[in-house]
Fold this protein.
Amino acid sequence: MQQIWQLQEAKNKFSQVVEKAIQSGPQVVTKHGVEVAVVLSYAEYRKMATAQKKLSAFFRESPLVGVDLDLTRDKSEVRDDIEL
């Protein structure tokens, strides 16, 4: 279960925050009420890191593969400047 820790409390109880991350999942750290960091177990981090694909693989698997896109430049006259 995710828990939210204020920064000062997380600093004082860092070993407990790490243990909770290992046992219960990512732990959120806030600073002045704003979520600023997440502590997660190394196993969770590795799972996320290895799940990422290369950008080239992402484009190869895109639903837009094979769609004919018109990428020609608009050659119309340049518009005059306008007064703001």
In short: The helical segments are 7-12, 14-24, 42-51, 55-60. The two ends are 55 Å apart (CA to CA). The CA atoms of residues 30 and 36 lie 5 Å apart. The chain is about 40% helix and 15% strand.
